[in-house]
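Re: your question from the hallway

Yes, I did run it. Sequences:
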Amino acid sequence: MSASGTFGYGIEFDDFIDVNRLGGILTKACTSKNRDGNRYPRMAETPSGMLNSVGLQNKGVDYFINTIYPKIEHYDTHIIVNVSDSTVEGYMEVAEKLNSLEKITGIELNISCPNVKEGGMAFGTSCPMAGAVTKAVREVYDKTMIVKLSPNVTNIAEIAKAVEDEGADSVSVINTLLGMAIDAEKRRPILSTITGGLSGPAVKPIALRMVWQVSKAIKIPVIGLGGISNATDAIEFLLAGATAIQVGTANFVDPQVCIKILDGIEEYCDRHGVKDVKELIGALDC
Amino acid sequence: MKKFIHDFEVTHNHHITDDYFAIYLKCPVSLPQILPGQFAEVLVSNSTTTYLRRPFSIYDVDYEKNVLSLLIKKVGDGTVALSKLKEGDALNLIYPLGNSFSMPGGKKALLIGGGVGIAPMLLLAKLLQEKGFKPDILIGGRTSNDIIEPEKYKPFGEVFITTDDGSSGEKGMVTQHSLFSGKVKEYSAIYACGPDPMMKAVARVAAEHTIPCEISLENTMACGIGACLCCVVETIDGNKTTCIEGPVFDTRKLKL
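Structure:
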């Protein structure tokens, strides 16, 4: 699947790949109201990765339903909407409105965005708050509900358990890591928000460790993401315990990377005599 | 416009000065039409400090030879790596990206490029001349070393030069050139690309003379295809992406 915020709504990639080949598309975050996002500069390249502080720019759930949904409902793959907001009521409003859209398979609750002043990561860094927002949205949303977890915590497995207890169907592990970049010549931060979310190959070892920890702690499926750039990376996440994987920042470098990863996983399975890719889930020999 | 991703072959890496080079790239398929102002996202591999692609204006296009070129200034690891590419090397491009300039309302137009910002002005000068307009090209730089290949523009219009130190052309910034005290009113459009302070100054002068002005922005970006929303610019109509809705913007729409 493509990771939220790195793949637009899928249509941005139509010139490069057959989007229908993906297991699913995670859309750009959708909030209850229009959000302009943060000021430019929103991006800093860092060793083997990047920082972003986009700040959930989107035109709100009503615009999504009326204008974007008609453009993407033809896709023959799972469309999962990433849902965020600054209040529990806001999360509920978005989820409730999306509930009736036939081609939206599920939602991914984003309780881990590090780039907004209110809400976002604040919901994902304490067990009671993560549990509360999950519980509230569960009451208004019938279909698949994934919760995207923040790595900016001391014990991610505890948060995973909290959202599992409140009705999450699965968890995405991980969102970006809070980081910072400085322009030494100007003695200024590069991002307008000073700090931002780190992604790309630089975070992969941390993501892999967290997927491994979370998958041992909970029973619901774990979706692994964080720096996956090729099929080998993807297989490592499956072995660590992920049931599915998302590809994020690598889409910026190679808009065809998702298809290359799918082909590469098939090639790996053939080479290792793996009949069903599911055999790889949690098959780490340790 | 449809976007493509291809491995191009370097046919020539022309080192113009110590700081600037033009890289000529042969496309493996027939080049699609490329508009002035459009850019390519270039993959610089093999370094931890050059993870993302780099956006560069398309400098020139030779449809007969199926070659396009990029004009690049060495500023960091990525551009230095590109400067070392040799004939026969491969370079992966996503292209053509972004919008283009609009045509002037009258015959005469002024094209302004500051330093490497001159890059999109060559295709624009060609197109304007081809369509019967009369472009003047004003090239600015800190020193004569920053005035890159001025002779290339001569077939398409009159060329004027300014340098901060007076080592070539008139001394001063582009907006201090005598064109602005003389025939500036004859222009029905001004187009500019270069450092932010230069573009802001040009936009201000254009506004003073009520001449429509378009500038090509160089905001840092990740994807180049409208997915990441990192390259936004504030406009009177809200945030717009430089990669899809730009890089060319009407200065009256920008919150400069």
